[in-house]
Design a protein that fits this description.
about 375 residues, seven-stranded mixed β-sheet, three-stranded antiparallel β-sheet, 12 helices, globular, binds pyridoxal-5'-phosphate
């Protein structure tokens, strides 16, 4: 049996008619940049997040950059970023001119270790960027309390967490700005690059829209220099179709995760993802830990099962951050789990048969 890591074609085939029609509509209406599809998507996505404003941008990385700029964060400021996340989170901080300060991860959730947060805050710290990594929500109440105490802004990197909830609350209740990516492989994916900024703050919304569109408020009225990072009409139209299905797709991911958990829970060598009723995990990725990760990955590959590693090197251990002069001991948890994490196939259309095949092969590997 072949089990792909993700299967975007299967999802497209299920909604092909609607998607194809929506793309043709955009062309017929020549609504390529801005226009009715972008406006409609922004309205619907803000509603989905239970927030006041959504500003479509070119991609998720830009959404974080624009969010930082909208909060006036830049040269001379420090921003706290998890050691274990996709590089875009810290890259955006550097793009804005601020200094990246990494924080180690929690050994249970793999999200930022909230206990360490107060120790990393200096007079220069302006913002913390919790990442709901793999779709696992950060315990934002604790982060919010600390941020309030030290007067820090909170930008949540929700690139992997469309629809995630904390104590039954929407993410927007826990910070200034949410940043989203609609990269094709994300839980809500466009057919190219796309992203969004979500906020309840009117002033931040105006600034973010201005900054992502050449710093202008009308056609040639440039208040400041911004960038060109806008959401395409075609991507917005595709996202509008897909938004109708996102809750159903997330439920399917959660069902798949439950089945994985049930099949793997008694296996000593494998640690399944942390799960609690208080955090609504949306399983962008299903990440297990294994004490013989590389051999297991190879064994699964030889049996037709594709897996991934998110991420093979914690950010402070990358060449790109050599200038910070960190050693593995500075981030003991992130540096340890980079050797053990393995992302199993996860997408809504994954079948029960496929999941059982994967878990059978994992058990077979450890029984040898
Ligand atoms: C994908 C991703 C981003 C960046 O999104 P792009 O749309 O690819 O720029 C940022 N942060 C995290 C955690 C991501 O997974």
């Amino acid at each position: 049996m072949q089990v792909p890591f993700v299967d975007l074609k299967k999802q497209y085939n299920a909604i092909k008619g609607e998607i194809d029609d929506s793309i043709l509509d955009v062309i017929e209406n020549t609504a390529f940049i801005g226009g009715r599809y972008v406006n409609k998507f922004e309205e619907m996505y803000a509603e989905y997040c239970n927030a006041k404003h959504c500003i479509g941008v070119g991609n998720g990385t830009d959404s974080i950059f624009v969010a930082l700029k909208a909060l006036n964060i830049g040269v001379g400021d420090e921003v706290i970023v998890p050691a274990n996340t996709f590089v875009a989170t810290s890259e955006a901080v550097s793009m804005a001119g601020a200094r990246v300060v990494f924080i180690d991860c929690d050994p249970t959730t793999y999200n930022l270790n909230i206990e360490l947060l107060p120790k990393l805050i200096t007079k220069k710290t302006k913002c913390v960027i919790p990442v709901h990594l793999y779709g696992q929500p950060v315990e934002m109440e604790r982060v919010r309390d600390i941020a309030n105490q030290y007067q820090l802004h909170i930008i949540q990197d929700c690139a992997q967490a469309h629809g995630a909830k904390i104590n039954n609350n929407y993410c927007i209740n826990y910070g200034d700005i949410l940043c989203y990516s609609f990269y094709p492989g994300k839980n809500l994916g466009a057919y190219g690059d796309a992203g969004a900024i979500v906020t309840n703050d009117d002033e931040i919304a105006i600034k973010a829209r201005m900054l992502s569109n050449h710093g202008r408020i009308s056609k040639y009225d440039h208040e400041v220099e911004g960038i060109n990072s806008r959401l395409d009409g075609i991507q917005a139209a595709i996202l509008l179709v897909k938004l109708k299905y996102i809750n159903d797709w997330v439920e399917k991911r959660r069902k798949n995760a439950s089945l994985y958990a049930e099949k793997l829970k008694n296996l000593n060598h494998v640690k399944i993802p942390y799960s609690t009723n208080l955090l609504y995990h949306v399983y962008h990725l299903y990440v297990i830990r294994s004490d013989s990760r590389n051999e297991l990955q190879k064994y699964l590959q030889n049996n037709g099962i594709s897996t991934g590693i998110h991420y093979p090197l914690a950010l402070p251990n990358l060449k790109a951050y050599k200038y910070l002069n960190h050693s593995y001991d500075d981030f003991p948890v992130a540096s340890k789990i980079q050797e053990e994490i393995l992302s199993l196939p996860m997408f809504p259309e994954l079948t029960e048969n496929q999941i059982c095949y994967v878990t059978d092969k994992i058990k077979e590997f450890y029984s040898k």
